C-alpha cells in the first residue's frame, strides 16, 4: 500500500506539471525531479554585494520549503513574496565558499555550493597625462572634463577629495577649476565623475606649462568588500598631469604650387591666410626679389594687414605688359614672407612662406 501511494503521488505530480505548465509561464514551469533529495538551480559563481536568484526544482505548492545559507562570512537568503518558497534571493557580503540549503516538510533536503568572489573597486584618474591648448577649453564653448573612475563597480555612495597642485601653470592665470569644492561624489552604481577645467587664452608666448590633479582621502564608501579603495601605487593612477600649450596661430601663403607661370598683364593676387581669426590686427611683412629697377608692380608695398576677426588678406602685384613682350626674358619674382607684427605674440609664420612667379610671353 505504501508503494502504491508513492506511485500515485508521483504520477499525479507529473500530470499536474503537464496541465499547469502553460498557466504558470516559462519562468514558473514545474520540473519534478523524483529522488531522495531536492535540487537547486542558480549561478555557482557570484560576486559579493550582488543579489542573485535561486529556485528549487520540482517545486510543489502543497509543500513548505525552508532555506538557509552558511559559509565563510555574512550571507542572507530571502524568499520572494508570493512564490511559496520556490524562489529566493541570496546576498553575500564576504568572499569565500558558501552552501545554500533548502528543506521541505516531507523531509527532503538539497544543497548547492556557491563560490563568492570580490572585484577590485579601485579609484583613479582616467588619464595620467594630457596635453591641451590654451584655446581648446574656453568659457561658453567647451570644458575640459578630466575623468576620475572607479573600476568594476560602485555599490554605495562614494566621495573622494582631490587637490590641484600648480606647476608652471598657475590656477587663476592659466586655468580655472569649475568644481564647487574639491570633492567628487559618486552615486551608487556611478563609476565616473569629472574635474572640470577651463583654460585662459592669452597673447603671450609662455611655453608648455603644467599642473597636477592629485586624488586624496576617500571620504565615504561602502563597507568591507564593497568599499572603494585607492589603486596600488604600482598602477600610478593617483594623479593626472595636465600640460597647457600656447595657442599658436600661423600665417601662410595660400598657394597650390611653389611656382606659377603668368603670361597675362594686370593685377595678380596672392592670398596670405591666418589659420584662425584673432582679436588683434596681424601685419605680415614680405619681400619680392627680382623686381626690375624702379618698378612699382608691388601694389601692397611689402606688407599686408589681416584685421581682427578676419583670416586673410592679399598681396597684389601688377604684371607689367612689357614683361610679356615677345622675345623678352621671363621676369622671375620670388616672394618671401618675412615677419609677423601683432600684439598677439602667439601668431607666427607657418611653413608655406615662399612663392615664385615667372612672368613672360606665352610660348
UniProtKB/TrEMBL annotation:
Q: Which domain of life is it from?
A: Bacteria
Any idea which UniProt keywords this protein has? Calcium, Repeat, Signal
Asked whether the keyword Methyltransferase is assigned, the reply is: no
Check the record and name the InterPro entries matching this protein: CalX-like_sf, Calx_beta
* Calx-beta domain boundaries: 130-228
Q: A single GO CC term, please?
A: membrane
Which PROSITE patterns would you find in this protein's record? PROKAR_LIPOPROTEIN (PS51257)
Q: State if Translocase is listed as a keyword.
A: no
* One Gene Ontology biological process: cell communication
Name of this chain's protein: Calx-beta domain-containing protein
What organism is the protein native to?
Answer: Marivirga aurantiaca
Amino acid at each position: 500500500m505504501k508503494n502504491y501511494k508513492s506511485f500515485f503521488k508521483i504520477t499525479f505530480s507529473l500530470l499536474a506539471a503537464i496541465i499547469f505548465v502553460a498557466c504558470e509561464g516559462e519562468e514558473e514551469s514545474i520540473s519534478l525531479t523524483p529522488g531522495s533529495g531536492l535540487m537547486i538551480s542558480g549561478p555557482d559563481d557570484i560576486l559579493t554585494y550582488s543579489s542573485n536568484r535561486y529556485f528549487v526544482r520540482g517545486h510543489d505548492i502543497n509543500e513548505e520549503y525552508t532555506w538557509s545559507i552558511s559559509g565563510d562570512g555574512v550571507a542572507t537568503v530571502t524568499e520572494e513574496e508570493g512564490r511559496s518558497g520556490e524562489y529566493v534571493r541570496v546576498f553575500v557580503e564576504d568572499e569565500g565558499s558558501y552552501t545554500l540549503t533548502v528543506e521541505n516538510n516531507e523531509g527532503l533536503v538539497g544543497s548547492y555550493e556557491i563560490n563568492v568572489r570580490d572585484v577590485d573597486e579601485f579609484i583613479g584618474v582616467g588619464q595620467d597625462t594630457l596635453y591641451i591648448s590654451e584655446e581648446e577649453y574656453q568659457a561658453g564653448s567647451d570644458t575640459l572634463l578630466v575623468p576620475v573612475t572607479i573600476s568594476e563597480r560602485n555599490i554605495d555612495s562614494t566621495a573622494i577629495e582631490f587637490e590641484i597642485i600648480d606647476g608652471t601653470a598657475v590656477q587663476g592665470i592659466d586655468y580655472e577649476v569649475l568644481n564647487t569644492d574639491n570633492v567628487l561624489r559618486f552615486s551608487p552604481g556611478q563609476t565616473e565623475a569629472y574635474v572640470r577645467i577651463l583654460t585662459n587664452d592669452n597673447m603671450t608666448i609662455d611655453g608648455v606649462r603644467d599642473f597636477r590633479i592629485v586624488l586624496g582621502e576617500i571620504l565615504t564608501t561602502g563597507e568591507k568588500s564593497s568599499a572603494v579603495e585607492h589603486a596600488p601605487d604600482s598602477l600610478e593612477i593617483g594623479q593626472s598631469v595636465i600640460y597647457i600649450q600656447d595657442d599658436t596661430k600661423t600665417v601662410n601663403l595660400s598657394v597650390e604650387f611653389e611656382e606659377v607661370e603668368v603670361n597675362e598683364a594686370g593685377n595678380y593676387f596672392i592670398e596670405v591666410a591666418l589659420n584662425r581669426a584673432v582679436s588683434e590686427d596681424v601685419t605680415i611683412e614680405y619681400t619680392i626679389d627680382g623686381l626690375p629697377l624702379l618698378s612699382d608692380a608691388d601694389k601692397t608695398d611689402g606688407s599686408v594687414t589681416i584685421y581682427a576677426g578676419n583670416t586673410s588678406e592679399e598681396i597684389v602685384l601688377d604684371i607689367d605688359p612689357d614683361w610679356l613682350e615677345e622675345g623678352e626674358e621671363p621676369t622671375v619674382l620670388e616672394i618671401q614672407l618675412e615677419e609677423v607684427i601683432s600684439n598677439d605674440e602667439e601668431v607666427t609664420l607657418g611653413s608655406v612662406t615662399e612663392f615664385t612667379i615667372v612672368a613672360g610671353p606665352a610660348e
